[in-house]
Amino acid sequence: MENETISNRDEVFSKKIKAGKRTYFFDVKATRGNDYYITITESKRRPDGFGYEKHKIFLYKEDFNKFLTGLNEAVSHIKTELMPGYDFEKFDREPEAEFDETGDFESGFENIGSFDSLKKSE
Which tops the pLDDT comparison, 24 or 122? Predict the structure, then answer.
């Protein structure tokens, strides 16, 4: 019972984003001192079909603004300098249909939002 309480306290919020062959998880977690951080996990099925490859980064509150600024700059550079004519919104219009782990139908891109919602670079 105590482990369940600790587990519930540790994970405060979770957002799952299915994007093609990858799934991303944004998890807000609490420390013992009621401080918060984010783990970002990329998960994709292994090429041999057995299990998943997972890559995780930890993002701490003191880095939130710098991270968002860097992410916005990188995405903006790709969209404006490297691929200005590319239609990035086509991914929002053409969701990839998938079945989740329970066998229920899910859209691969529902509730993603856009990079415009991230904090603008100053």
Answer: 24
Alpha helical stretches, state H, 1-122: 2-10, 64-77, 90-93
CATH number of the domain that residue 87 is part of: 3.10.450.700
State which residues form the domain around 20: 2-117
Measured between alpha carbons, how far is 11 from 60 in angstroms, rounded to an integer? 14
Q: Which residue has the higher pLDDT, 82 or 5?
A: 82
Strands 105-107 and 97-99 turn out to be antiparallel
Nearest-CA neighbor of 11 among 33, 36, 45?
Answer: 36
Position 97 in a domain: yes
Q: What is the DSSP letter of 50?
A: S
Residue 122 lies in a domain: no
Tens digits of residue pLDDT in 63-94: 999 999 999 999 999 999 999 999 988 877 65
The DSSP H or E segment spanning 59 is strand 52-60
Q: How many domains does the chain have?
A: 1
